[in-house]
Structure formats: structure tokens, C-alpha cells
Amino acid sequence: MITSETMKRLEFDKILADIATRVHSDVTRSTVLAVMPQNDARSIADISGRVAEIRRLSSLGISLNISQFEDIRPLLDAVRPVGSFLAPQDLLLFIPVLRNFSDIARQFAPRSDIPLLKSLEPSLRPFADILEPLAASIDYDGSIMDSASPQLKEIRRGKRSLAARIRKKIEEIVRDNNIEIFLQDDFITQRSGRWVIPVRMDSKGMVKGVVHDVSSSGETAFMEPLEIIPFVNELENLTAEEKAEEIRILRQLSAWIREDAADLAACFGTLVVMDRLNGIALFSDQFGLEVARMNSSGGLTLAGARHPMLLMLQQQGVLQRVEPLDLHLDGNGQVMVITGPNAGGKTIALKTAGVLTLMALCGIPVPADGARSDFPLLDTLLVDIGDEQSIEESLSTFSAHVARIATILGQAGPRTLVLLDELGAGTEPQQGAAIACGVLRDLQGNGATVIATTHLSEIIGYVHSTPGMINAGMEYDAEKYTPLYRLISGEPGHSHAIEIARRFGMPEKVIEFARDMLGTAGADFTSLLAELHRKREELVEARRQLEQQQEQVKITEKELERRAAGIETARREAREKAWGEARELISTSRRRMNELLEEYKRERRSEIIDKLRNSEREITEQLKPKDHGDEEHKPLQDVSEGDAVHVRSLGHDAVVLQVIPKQGKVRVRAGSMELELPLNDLAAPLAKGGKKARQPDRKSWGAASAETEERELKLIGLRVEEALDMLEPFLNHSSLSGLREVRIIHGLGSGRLRQAVREHLARHPLVEEYRPGEAHEGRDGATVVTLRG
To answer: So what's the pLDDT on residue 696?
Structure first.
């Protein structure tokens, strides 16, 4: 358990006090000041997650709709007895609370990005059946408005009318009876609820009426004229009716509150929690705090950490800069001892570690790098910071420290963080150092994580030689003799007491005597620390240069990637352009081939065949790949009949039927088509099996007609574009072969391929007619084509 005394020693109460200034109710302020650390990771995550959701809304320009409100729980207790009712001023306090309920409920209702806030139980609800009549009944000054009920409105209207009549009647009495000369003053007023006029005491017998009061000087009598008494009595009756109606209204409003008292109290608790979380979020936004990560290993890592009190001073302009603190402890009994000069920042580092750990355990974002910082889940946090000298208990500073540390040793264990300031101070240095080393050893044995500060250089050697312990020092500018407030892990600090004494005016003869007294051991130790500092600076510089080189390498890599992307884009554009030109060539060639076929069928002239062959050679030459695109196919040195080959211009495999060496050509079969091709248009096929493959690879062909089925073309499984590319040469070769009827097998599928095939056939010059297949021909999954004779 972490005590309130520990939190106060670390000045955590000042942080809570600052957060408390940002809430909207005294009851919320008291809950903020009473915030205690949690030891459950889920509870901490819920708090920090809800704060993060509020801050996310704020980043979108959406603030929680919370206005000032008062604690209504005592009033809910007062109204619980049946028949009791609250005064208007008390009922007035419910209106801002209920409006907060309504505003937040309406604000949260449509959102899906704040699951943790919406999971708060109970969820806030509007209580419109209470808020609306309250707002219509109780005015801002605590009075009951006319709109509270129709009857009250009518009574008050009658009162105003009657009061006007009374005033008018009095004016008539004064005017008609010529009694102005007996009046002390010309005004009408009220005494004890009665309407009166001021009459001189010596003339009161001249006016018919009842004296209700006398002035303090005794010169004026306040008299009620007899003629208005009936009107005033009627007015008092209306006043009584008004009072009764007001009480009835208050009873009714109180009864409605009584019915929902339990729900109102529960929702009020949610509102207070929401207000507290909003205060934390506002505090976090002001100082740019980040969500803390928690661990169960006991490790503590601070990266770019700053004490929040120093950040407050910086915002106030008191400090120019707050130096960040970096610190790492693995936990599991690890000990860090910080040494360094006075006013060098040792105690600030200690308190920063402690107060940020408290903030993290309370779910409050921390002033540190959230991605690189890590905080332990603790059962307890134990500290010994400050001067514990006690006159009443006759304890010196050393005695008080010893008593406090003895208590800490009895309480420390795993999941404990111990912070010890000026360990071993207050007594003879060697004995103090021995006691300090024993304390560190015992705490480490108990599994506690420890951060301690000290001036005793005797402790440094023990820490250096003990596994699980690490020295650290506050960096110091040896040339300017000024602290830099940066913590250096792994390197002990030095007090620099003599240099600091010289800087602040200590006589030189005292400084020289002190150096002589210190002896060579102290000088050697100082030289060792200076050498360590120099080597560390060299390592830091080397690391900086390495990081610059790595950054330059990254820039070069990005430039190469950019250039490679440009090259790839250019290649893709070239391929697309070549493909477009090829498609245009194919389209033109098809038209030319169809014209030649028509001419051939009409005239049966042999020269047409030569034209076809020449046209085929021209197209093959134009479509022949250049220096790219066939890297995967190796060129063939020689071929023979029956070899499986790959036709580069077609992009498909085929079987060699005849070799024509004199013409440098071969005749091949690709599916049901036979073609004469140049020998250099052939390449080794990709299909396994090598030579002597008697059939082309059907997978690479996509849809090939079987050799024995020259009258059929199978297009099942192909895209429309691929199918039409296969259909055109099939129709051409079928027509050249003198076939009268062929069958296109395209399957049913979605019908898109069938429709495209039939639309192509409908406008093809070689097609006379086409029809769906019969039952034995595949029905609508095939199309039977009749070619022109």
C-alpha cells in the first residue's frame, strides 16, 4: 500500500491540487485530492483509456458538456422520507446536475469511438420528466415561477390585478376627501402586509383608518384607510392560496425526485467520475502528457521524462528549460546509485522517478515519451527524502534517516520501488558508506527495485562490483563548473566540491589546503572519472556520426527506390503501348485475312494463298518479341518432327508436324490449327517432359481443341478477351479447311462468355448462321456455327 505521506513527500499532492482547479464541483475536487494509486493493471488501463478518449474528442474540437454543479446527495437523503419536500433554493441545485446528465447523454449517444467512456456504469440519462418541470418551476434566483402551474399563474394574476385596484382606490380616497394636507409625504407603502399612507401624527384623527405603524421619529403614523380594508383582506386570501399552491408544487417536484432518488445518486457518481477524468485530460493537454505503459516485471524505464512541477514553473516563465531524464532499471532487485555534485539534480531525478510512477499508477498520463517509457505495477512505494530532524523526539537527521530506513527494510519486497535520498549521510563517511552498502544489499535481496542518491564515493566501488547494481551520475560541465542536470547511467558522478567552493568565493589558500588534505587518491579518482567522461563523449560522438551515416544510407535507399519505381513505370507504360499497337495490328490483320478468305472462296485463285502466307509472315515478323518478354523460353538450336515447342508469336505451345529446312520454316499444330512458322519463332516449351511431347501443355494454352476434335473449340474457363483471341483463328482455319459446321463450347456460367461469343459470331463475315446446341451437343453451353460455303 502506498501511503498519503509518501505521496506528499513526492509532492504528488501538488499535482492533484492543480488538476482539482480544472473540475466543476467541490465534490469532484475532493475526489481528485483523494486519488490513490492502483495496483491492478485493468483499473489503470480503464482510467488512462477514458482520459485518452476525452483527449481524442478534444483534438476533434469536441469538449465534454460539463458545467458547474453542486453536491445533491445530501438533498437526496433529505427528501427520502415520504411527505418531505425541498425548498426552492434546494431544488434549484438539481437543475445544473440534470442538465449535465442530459447534455453528456446526448453528446455520447451517436458516438462509437468512446467505448470506455460509454461503459461507465450507470450510464447518464436525461431524467427529462424531472428536469423539464423543475426548469419551468424554479427561477435562477430560487423563486417559484408563474409557469409552475396554471392555478399559480391565475392566483398571481389576480393578486397583481387586486394590488393595482387597491393602489388606485387609495389614490381616489386621498384625492376625493381632500386629505393631502394631512399627509407627511406623497407615497403609498406597506406595513405588516397592509397598504398604508403616511399621515402626520397631529392629524391622524382627520383620516378614517387604522394605524399599523409609527415612524421612528414619532412624527408619522402609517394608516390604512377603512375603505380599502375589504380589498386588502381579499388580497391576503389570495396570498394564502398562493402559498398553498407553492407548497403543493414543491411537494410534487420533491415526490418526483424521491421516486428516482437511487438512480439520481448513481448517475451523480458517474458525473463526478466524468468530471474528474475531464480534469485529468485538461491537465494532460496543457502539458502534453502521454499515456503510461505498465509492466508486471518491476522494471522502470524513463525516456525524456520531466518533473511536472518543473513544467509548471516553465509555463510560468520561471524556468527557461527543463532537462529531460533518461533512466532504466530492469526490476527484479536491480539497484541504481546516483552520485554527483550538490544542486546537480540528483534529488530531482529521484523525485521525478517517484512522482511519474505515482501518476502512472493513478492512470494519469505522464510527462515522458510514452512509447519508450515503462512503469512497474507496485504493491508499495517507499521513500526516504528530506530532513527528518525532530526536536520533539530528540532525533538528529541521521537518527531520523536510520529509523525511516529500518522501517523501509521491514516493508520492502518484490513489486516495491524504494527511493532513498542522501543515503549514508549525516555521520562519519566510512561508517555511513558501510551502512549504506548493507542497506542496498538487503533491499536487493528482498527483490525491491531501488534508486538511491549519495555523496559518498566509497559506495561507488561496491555498486560497481555487485551484479544487479549500477552506478549513475549527474553530468557536470568541468570547464564552467556548472551542473547540466543530465543523468548518465553506468558512470558515477563526482561531487566537484572543491571546484564549486572556489567558484562561490572560497579563498584560494583554503582550496589548496583542501587539495593537499585530499591526497593523491582523491586526485586519481577525479582523473579516472574525467577519463571515463572523455571516453563517453568520444562514444557519443562516434554514435552521432554513425547515425548520420545511417540516415544518409536511408536517403540513398529511398532515392534508389524512387528511381527503380520510375523505371518500372516507364517499362509498364512501354508494355501497355506495345500491347495497344499489337491489338490494333491484329484487328487490322483480321479484317485483311477475312477479305482475302472471301476473295479466295469466290475465285479459288492460287495467288490468294500466296497473299495469305505473305500476310502471315508479315504479321509474325511484326509481332515477334524484341529483347524482352521471353526470358523464360530458351531458343531452340534444332527441331524435328514430333517435338514439343513454344511459338513465341502466339505465346502458346505446339507440336512440330514437318520441318522445311530450305525455307527455314516448320509446320506445327496448335490445338486444331496447323501453321507454317519461321524456325526462329520457336523456343523450348515450359512444360515438363522436354522433347517428344506429342501434345501442347493445355494449362499454358488455356483452352485448346483436342487434336482429334478439329471441329470443336473449348473456351470454358477463359476470360472474354482470351476466348475471342482463340475464336478468330479457329474460324479462319476451319473455313480454310473446308469445314461447314463447327461447335464452340463455352459453358453456361454467368452467361457473359456465351453472350460475347455469339455477338462476335453475329458480325463475323465467315459465319452464315449459328444456333444453341441440341441435347447431344451441350444445349445452351455450346454454340453450333454454320460457316459460309
So the answer is: 38
